[in-house]
Each structure stands twice: as structure tokens, then as C-alpha cells.
Amino acid sequence: MGARGAPSRRRQAGRRLWYLPTGSFPFLLLLLLLCIQLGGGQKKKENLLAEKVEQLMEWSSRRSIFRMNGDKFRKFIKAPPRNYSMIVMFTALQPQRQCSVCRQANEEYQILANSWRYSSAFCNKLFFSMVDYDEGTDVFQQLNMNSAPTFMHFPPKGRPKRADTFDLQRIGFAAEQLAKWIADRTDVHIRVFRPPNYSGTIALALLVSLVGGLLYLRRNNLEFIYNKTGWAMVSLCIVFAMTSGQMWNHIRGPPYAHKNPHNGQVSYIHGSSQAQFVAESHIILVLNAAITMGMVLLNEAATSKGDVGKRRIICLVGLGLVVFFFSFLLSIFRSKYHGYPYSFLIK
């Protein structure tokens, strides 16, 4: 009996292993439905992402920068899913806004976007768009944005960080600087291709023609070439242009000035020692030229042998130019290099 009963008990135990409690069936059913729902949700997200990318690629095929209003911004940038980076320029290009800086920045932005669109590395991982204030006022309010132009990078995941806002005031808005910033934020390297500009070539040709014509007309009398005063004036012009920051403007492409959107006040002097406006370089050039003129007058008063009264007047005028404009130049230096302790006449 014992031998025959043992297999029977083993079969019963084996059967119990295949049986589950009755209350576990709803749990299994719920788990199965949850898996199906998650799978369907994932599929829906994939389809939605594919539709968004397809739409963006279609817009990019038409133009390198596509404009967005509030609805498009929330759908393609704020709302998930998203596996692409988006560079957005917030601007105000309407004529009534009178934003000349916006137009200049838009030209550089177009050059950058066109360089990406027509490059061999173009893909669906990076797109360029624009939100104009008059077309997306709600977007500006949502982002608490009160100035334009502003460049922002929206990463594929998460919210933009502080470094995702381009420091336009310090760096400028040249296409090359924007490309470098994008490479730091997205690891996408864009080689900027600028359209051919023949104005420099034409200007150089006209200058060479003018000089050549002048030399030809004066071929019998070329003593003016040895004129020290003429060469000194040319040298001073070059020195004034270089010391005022014209080369920096050419490289960085800063705005001409800055207009406060709240009170409309225009600033011609940048408040940081790391940047400048184009108007600021012009002001510095004039100040340096005035100081130099004062020094020339002082030298003339000291070395000439004319009337004493006339020499005294020249000396006073030269001294006044040096003192006043040097004080003005020193005050600008103090406003940019905060904490500089020295001043003279003008604070």
C-alpha cells in the first residue's frame, strides 16, 4: 500500500504546482491589460514623435528657419516626446518695433541655418526656428522674456539650463560664434559658409584705381610721396581704428547699440569690460583723435617760432583738449571696469 500510494501523492503534489489561488486571476488579468496599455502608449508616443519629426523635416526642406506661433511652440518644443534639439531665435522684426539689432542678428542667423541645411552632415537632430514677438506674444510671456533678440537651445530631454541661453551681449551674434555655442550644447558642428560679398573687392579695386590714377597724373612730380605729414596722418588713422576696437567688431559682430525695451533708453557704452557696442568704438576713436590733436597743438606751441600770444592760445587749446577728452575717456574706462578708483574732472 505504501509503495502504491507514493506515486499518487507525488502526482497530486505536481498538480498543485500548476494550480494558482483563485484570487490571482484578476491580478494576472490586470497585469496583462497594463502591459497592453503600456505597449500601446509607447507605440502612440513613437508615432507622435515620427509625425513631429516628419513635419519639421518638411518645413526645413522649404526654408532653413521656420516661424512658430504659440501653438506650434508648445507642440513641437515644449510638449514631449522629442528626440531633437531646437534652436529658437526670439526676435521682433516688425517695422513698428524699430529693432535694428534684430535685423542684423537675423541675417547672421540665416547664414548659420543655411550652412546647416546645405551641409553634408544635415540630419533630423537639429532644427532652427524663430518666434516673433508679434506672432507669439504668449510665448514671450510664458518664458518671462523681455528683450530681443535672444537665442535659446531646447535640448531633446529636460528643460533648458542657463548655458542654453546664448550670451549675446558678451559674445555678439556672429554666425561663427553661434555655431561654436551650438557645438558646445549639442555636439553638432556646423561649418559656416557665407555668401560671396564683392563689396570689399570692388572697394579695393576702386582704391587701387584711384591711387594709380593719382600717381599717373602726378608722374612728373612725386615729391608728395615723401611727405612725412601725410604718412603720419595715414598711420594715425590706422592706429585709431585698431585701438578703438574696430577689429573686435569685425570678428564678434556686436550690435550698434542697445535699446532698453522697458523705458526705450538707448545705451551706447556696454557695461561690461568683456564686450562693447559698435557705437562705443566710434566714441573711443573720436576721443583718441581729440587727445592726439591736443598733443599736436601742444607740440606746435612749444616748437614753433611765431608770435608768443598766438603760441599761448594754441597751448591753452591743446591743453584743454587733452584734459577734457582724457577725463571723458577715463570716465568710460571706470564705467566698464567697475571698482577702478581713479578719475579726473569727469566721474
TrEMBL record:
<dbReference type="GO" id="GO:0018279">
    <property type="term" value="P:protein N-linked glycosylation via asparagine"/>
</dbReference>
<dbReference type="GO" id="GO:0008250">
    <property type="term" value="C:oligosaccharyltransferase complex"/>
</dbReference>
<dbReference type="InterPro" id="IPR036249">
    <property type="entry name" value="Thioredoxin-like_sf"/>
</dbReference>
<comment type="similarity">
    <text>Belongs to the OST3/OST6 family.</text>
</comment>
<feature type="transmembrane region" description="Helical">
    <location>
        <begin position="313"/>
        <end position="333"/>
    </location>
</feature>
<keyword id="KW-0472">Membrane</keyword>
<keyword id="KW-0460">Magnesium</keyword>
<keyword id="KW-0812">Transmembrane</keyword>
<feature type="transmembrane region" description="Helical">
    <location>
        <begin position="198"/>
        <end position="217"/>
    </location>
</feature>
<keyword id="KW-1133">Transmembrane helix</keyword>
<dbReference type="InterPro" id="IPR021149">
    <property type="entry name" value="OligosaccharylTrfase_OST3/OST6"/>
</dbReference>
<dbReference type="GO" id="GO:0015095">
    <property type="term" value="F:magnesium ion transmembrane transporter activity"/>
</dbReference>
<dbReference type="Pfam" id="PF04756">
    <property type="entry name" value="OST3_OST6"/>
</dbReference>
<feature type="transmembrane region" description="Helical">
    <location>
        <begin position="282"/>
        <end position="301"/>
    </location>
</feature>
<keyword id="KW-0813">Transport</keyword>
<keyword id="KW-1015">Disulfide bond</keyword>
<keyword id="KW-0732">Signal</keyword>
<comment type="subunit">
    <text>Accessory component of the STT3B-containing form of the oligosaccharyltransferase (OST) complex. OST exists in two different complex forms which contain common core subunits RPN1, RPN2, OST48, OST4, DAD1 and TMEM258, either STT3A or STT3B as catalytic subunits, and form-specific accessory subunits. OST can form stable complexes with the Sec61 complex or with both the Sec61 and TRAP complexes. The association of TUSC3 or MAGT1 with the STT3B-containing complex seems to be mutually exclusvice.</text>
</comment>
<keyword id="KW-0256">Endoplasmic reticulum</keyword>
<feature type="signal peptide">
    <location>
        <begin position="1"/>
        <end position="41"/>
    </location>
</feature>
<feature type="transmembrane region" description="Helical">
    <location>
        <begin position="229"/>
        <end position="248"/>
    </location>
</feature>
<protein>
    <submittedName>
        <fullName>Tumor suppressor candidate 3-like isoform X2</fullName>
    </submittedName>
</protein>
<comment type="pathway">
    <text>Protein modification; protein glycosylation.</text>
</comment>
